[in-house]
Amino acid sequence: MEGWDKVNIAIVLMNYNPFGGYERQAAILARALARRGERVTVIAGSFEGAPEDGVEVVRAPVIRLSSWLKVLSFALSSRSIISRRPGGFDMVIAFDRTLVADIYRAGNACHREWLAFRRKNFGLGDRISVAINPLHAVINGLEKRLLMNLRERGGRVVVLSDRGSGEIIRNHGLGGDFFTVIPPGIDLERIGFSPSEKGKGPARKALGIPPGVPVILHVGSGFRIKGLESTVRALAALKRDGREALLLVAGRDRSETRRHGKLAGSLGVSGNIRFMGGVEEVGALYDASDVFVLPSLFETFGAAAIEALAAGLPVIIGEGAGAASFIKNERGGRVVRTPADPEELAALIGEALSAEEMLRRNGGLERERARRREAALECSAEKVAASFASLIYEAALSKRTLKEASVQPGLA
User: Fold this and answer.
1) For a pLDDT cut of 90, what percent of the chain falls above it?
2) Do 148 and 202 belong to one domain?
3) CA 346, CA 212: separation in Å to the nearest integer?
4) 322 and 300 in contact (C-beta within 8 Å)?
5) Which of 86, 152, 302, 364 has the most CB atoms around its CB within 10 Å?
6) CA–CA dist 342, 203 (Å, integer)
7) Which residue range(s) make up the domain with 349?
8) In DSSP terms, which residues pair with 12 in a beta bridge?
9) Are residues 50 and 120 in the same domain?
10) Longest distance between any two alpha carbons in the chain, whole Å
11) Distance, CA of 192 to chain centre
């Protein structure tokens, strides 16, 4: 950055590891900034895996007696670490709701919006649980204070899509110029799918899937929120119409796996579904599939949809996911209303499968798959990290200018 030796950056989040969703985003950013020669410190309540080269990790003490104490104690201890740092930090990037930040990456939904969704869609037991659990008051309080402090200090909020800024504006009354949209970075090398449709045959053989069977793919835990029930019912609707297909479900959700398994049995499609559990090498599933379906009811983004697009698959995604606007704008598939009507969803799946087969017969499938991959590169880890770095440099320069102006005589 011009005019600076190095930018001293703190990245603050509760749990730091290279495996989870938002945690992986923090790791991608830390690695990219370190490679640019910046001084990067990760302040985390817990840490897994080896630290990135050039990244210092500082553990913040956390009280784990209850969920609300864990959240509050991390906010307090991370603030203490930041305030006691010799020389301080030029930039503090919060990936969680904390008490100190220059930039807040709002990777989680606005908590007030999430609670409103739960009140509308979940049962009485859940509403009672929310009402008596102090965790929600703690999160709401931290979120409100963080956003107000950022506004007063001229900070920025990074949202994953326009949906994220809309949630915060509705619930906290902030202006639209407060936000920067930066989607999650997709680490394509980590996924490791085939660059062409030629990988489909070997992938299916390894999974024991016969040639010619249409394969629908779901990737993501939290089956209830991600609308898996609609997909299972759509699978049954396809079968009633004489279109046999196989649904692969990748993701951990023990209780919902049992529930959806019983539902599949009652609909006569138990033999058409494979629950894969948590899958680390998910690239083979993308290779084996024909269409990706994620009718999410509520999701800040839905990075798996972009992974599927990068694998060349058509995507059907719920309007409740932040990635829906990206899929629509990039002509990567279709957006379905939520909760998705099974018949409508089945029709969209059938159309996608027919379109893929027509492209295959006309010799245009590889070209279309390449176009989808190119669109997904807008969310490549490198591009996203570069966008985030530019925002950090801009904010750091502005902060430095204001600080210098405040200490010079005669300047207000």
Assistant:
1) 68
2) no
3) 19
4) yes
5) 302
6) 28
7) 188-379
8) 43, 94
9) yes
10) 81
11) 19
Distances (CA, A) of 149 to 101, 146, 380, 401: 8, 5, 31, 19
CA 39 to CA 30: how far, in whole Å? 10
Q: What pLDDT, on a 0 to 100 scale, did the predictor assign at position 411?
A: 44
Clarify whether residues 303 and 336 are in a common domain. yes
**Going edge to edge, which strands form the sheet with 291-294?**
273-277, 246-250, 215-219, 291-294, 315-318, 333-336
Read off the tokens for 231: 């997909």
Q: Which of 99, 112, 111, 107 is nearest to 159 (CA)?
A: 107
Q: Which pair of tokens denotes residue 243?
A: 């279109």
Query: What is the number of structural domains in the chain?
Result: 2
Cβ 221 vs Cβ 253: under 8 Å: yes
Query: Is the model more confident about 15 or about 195?
Result: 15
Name the token pair of 109.
């939904």
pTM of the entire structure?
0.86
Mapped onto helix, strand or coil, the DSSP state of residue 63 is: coil
Contact 286, 191 (CB under 8 A): yes
- Strands in 156-159's sheet, in edge-to-edge order, are 55-59, 39-47, 8-16, 91-94, 103-105, 156-159, 179-181
The answer to whether residues 258 and 156 belong to one domain is no
Tell me the two tokens of residue 200. 């489909």
DSSP string over 134-184: HHHHHHHHHHHHHHHHHHHHT-EEEESSHHHHHHHHHHH---GGGEEE-PP
Same domain (yes/no): 209, 333: yes
Q: Is the pLDDT of residue 257 over 70?
A: yes
At residue 14, the 3 state secondary structure works out as strand
Task: Judge whether residue 20 has pLDDT over 90.
Answer: no
CATH number of residue 390's parent domain: 3.40.50.2000
How many angstroms separate the CA atoms of 140 and 144, rounded? 6
